[in-house]
TrEMBL record:
InterPro entries: AB_hydrolase_fold, Pept_S9A_N, Peptidase_S9_cat, Peptidase_S9A, Prolyl_oligopep/macrocyclase. Residues 1-21 are annotated as: Disordered. Residues 20-415 form the Peptidase S9A N-terminal domain. Keywords: Hydrolase, Protease, Serine protease. This is Prolyl oligopeptidase family serine peptidase. GO terms for molecular function: oligopeptidase activity; serine-type endopeptidase activity.
Length: 699
């Protein structure tokens, strides 16, 4: 099978090309013709939405929340203090800053600026967006700072000294923007996975080689230590490192699909393939034990470790005999349980789990040859998470949140129950609001849970404007949380909010995801439609007042919903979407998601995709619910072409629609709070016009 170059505009293996697709020119993100089209659409949308008397008020409400100085400044715990990245009206691009624990516990911490991104952007004439840092353990003084010009995923990397608060003169610098990253081996050595030229990126535009870069030498001369295959999604090498910063070995992986990897360990002078499932991953080190997580049942050494389990081997045994070291069970999920991240302190590990979509946190220790698991005393009926851990001490921070209670940050030094450290202010009036959980029955009989957040005084009389939000992909869970913007701009105005827990997500573990991928992806769309139908049946709303919203994979979800059931919805926010699924592998990072959706170049798989691809399903003679599509010019992940082409096709068919493109932000949209606030206001005005104003939307 011939493989096209990334973003190729040509047809191949039955994939539509220019002859079949008159809007393929919109796939050129920054061509003059495409940008002229974008500006015209933006002007049209802004001229209409901004004249609505609610637009300025909603923009101000959103900006006040985004810029609020009393919101919780979440931190990471490092040896030299607590670090936070902060954006507000004085620092729209943000500052990296630090404080002490003692000061942080106060109502008004004293912050020391470490890196001022606004000042850096002004000095260099760039739209720098801070994308995080990778620091050398254990003291984390030397860091590689990642910066994106305009918010795209591709970054440059520069070495920064957290003590001097300066970029290191003559230090490590990678100025060619690219996907990929680095890891520190020691103070003078980096493991680098980037686009090195000469065909070192995959069809998905990710690197598949890793080099060992010594300080003071050209990156072009760095030794290649691992090479995957061009057909991989991505590939690279990394390190097994404990919480003291000690390196215990080198690992490597080849991601042969988005969800499957072949893992290796450097052993006796060569890369040894590890005997583990392709849907399993190497984890961290707990009390001298190396952990693994698995998304499928793992049969090994006469045992069966169930999907979603945490498995361990003795680290020293593993270093001697990687495939022969005895494996033990650390934790296995009960029915409707799944793990969702965690962290390691100096002496313990912590793991957040979901139990029927309710959060818990477990403390895990290896004591006298046995695994001991205890539940941490945190609020019931909330979404819980591990926010920050210290590798030097047993200090740890947790978060708790739900739909109507402001987020809370908890702290423990490891010796007692966590105590409240900070609480987010109330950004909307939740008085009289309620939360209920229901189940819808999908097309195949599956039970699909969803949450309803009811505004004050809402009656189940079928006359309520309601916004249904979903995602349903990549094993990502949609959980109860304090959505300040939704609360202030929608719930307070009388709108109901519905959050769907669709198959394809991760709310009930990897099985919940795997039953709705590839040939079964239609199940996700069926689940979403079923929730909408159930909301109408229960009297929550009616089709004339039911809107839907989702972004990225969620944008694809919304696209399938309004093209498959245009009669069920009267508003559809299609945000940063996938939309043309017959060409998605040629646009942006699309080829990396073939493991989720399938490959449209293969006839059998094309048939799955063609059955739902929203772009192809927009046809003449159907009354669609005037969707609002929006994207970002700088989004090099899903790419703005998807939303552009959807809008262009709707326009050609004489359909009502709205289109807006943020010309500076990346995949999440907006490089600063002012732009993010405008994006929120545009969407809310659209929803109010469609769902609240006697259903008299339009121009």
């Amino acid at each position: 099978m011939t493989i096209a170059t990334p973003n190729s505009l040509s047809a191949q293996d039955g994939v539509p090309g220019p002859d079949e697709d008159p809007y393929i020119w919109l796939e050129e993100a920054r061509s003059d013709e495409a940008l002229d089209w974008v500006r015209a659409e933006n002007n049209r949308t802004m001229a209409h939405m901004a004249q609505d008397p609610r637009f300025d008020e909603l923009t101000a409400e959103a900006l006040a929340i985004l810029d609020a100085e009393d919101r919780i400044p979440y931190v990471s715990i490092r040896k030299d203090g607590l670090y936070n990245f902060w954006q507000d009206k004085e620092n729209p691009k943000g500052v990296l800053r630090r404080t002490t624990l003692e000061s942080y516990k106060s109502d008004d911490p004293e912050w020391e600026t470490v890196l001022d991104v606004d000042a850096l952007a002004a000095a260099e004439g760039k739209e720098w967006v801070y994308k995080g840092s990778t620091c050398l353990p254990p003291d984390q003084r030397l860091c590689m700072i990642a910066l994106s010009d305009g918010g795209e995923d591709a970054t440059i990397l520069r070495e920064f000294d957290m003590t001097t608060k300066q970029f290191v003169e003559g230090g490590f610098v990678i100025e060619e923007k690219s996907q990929g990253g680095v890891q520190w081996l020691d103070e003078d050595t980096l493991l680098v996975g980037r686009d090195f030229g000469g065909e070192t990126i995959t069809e998905s535009e990710y690197p598949f080689t890793t080099r060992l870069w010594k300080r003071g030498t050209p990156l072009s001369e760095a030794e290649e230590i691992f090479r995957g295959e061009p057909s991989d999604v991505w590939a690279g090498a990394g390190l097994i490192r404990d919480n003291k910063g000690v390196v215990h070995g080198r690992t490597a992986f080849r991601a042969i699909s988005f969800h499957e990897s072949i893992n290796y360990i450097w052993h006796e002078g060569e890369w040894l393939e590890l005997d583990m499932p392709k849907k399993a991953n190497i984890g961290g080190i707990i009390d001298g034990q190396l952990t693994f997580s698995t998304d499928v049942d793992w049969e090994t050494q006469g045992q069966v470790f169930p999907a979603d389990a945490l498995v361990a081997v003795d680290l020293e045994d593993f270093k001697r005999d990687p495939n022969g070291a005895k494996k033990t069970l650390v934790w296995a999920p009960a029915e409707r349980q799944t793990k969702r991240g965690g962290g390691v302190t100096a002496n313990s590990a912590y793991m957040a789990i979901l139990d029927n979509v309710v959060g818990k946190v477990l403390k895990i220790d290896f004591e006298d040859g046995e695994w001991v698991t205890t539940e941490v005393n945190l609020p019931d009926n909330a979404t819980l998470g591990v926010q920050a851990t210290s590798s030097e001490t047993d200090e740890i921070m947790f978060t708790s949140t739900d739909f109507l209670s402001p987020s809370t940050l908890w702290y423990s030094d490891g010796t007692g129950d966590p105590q409240v450290l900070k609480t987010s202010p109330e950004y909307f009036d939740a008085t009289g609001m309620e939360v209920e959980q229901f189940e819808a029955t999908s097309k195949d009989g599956a039970k699909v849970p969803y949450f309803l957040v009811k505004p004050k005084g809402m009656e189940m009389d079928g006359k309520n404007p309601a916004l249904l939000y979903g995602y349903g992909g990549f094993q990502i869970s949609q959980l109860p949380s304090y959505r300040a913007l939704t609360g202030k701009m929608w719930l307070e105005k009388g709108g109901a909010f519905i959050l769907a827990n669709l198959r394809g997500g991760g709310e009930f573990g990897p099985g919940w995801h795997q039953m709705a991928i590839r040939e079964n992806k239609q199940r996700t769309w069926d689940d979403f439609i079923a929730v909408g139908e159930d909301a109408v049946k229960r009297g929550i709303t009616n089709p004339g007042q039911l809107g839907i919203q989702g972004g990225s994979q969620g944008g694809l979800l919304v696209g399938t919903a309004f093209t498959q059931r245009p009669d069920l919805f009267d508003a559809a926010i299609v945000a940063i979407p996938l939309f043309d699924m017959l060409r998605y592998h040629l646009i942006g990072r699309g080829a990396s998601w073939i493991g989720e959706y399938g490959d449209p170049r293969i006839p059998e798989q094309r048939e799955w995709i063609e059955g739902y691809s929203p772009y192809q399903k927009i046809v003449d003679g159907v009354d669609y619910p005037a969707p609002f599509l929006w994207a970002s010019t700088a989004d090099d992940r899903t790419h703005p072409a998807h939303a552009r082409k959807g809008a262009a096709k709707l326009k050609a068919l004489g359909q009502d629609y709205w289109y807006y493109e943020d010309m500076t932000g990346g995949h999440s949209g907006g490089v600063d709070n002012e732009q993010r606030a405008k994006l929120q206001a545009l969407q809310m005005v659209y929803l109010m016009q469609r769902l609240m104003d006697d259903n008299e939307a339009g121009e």
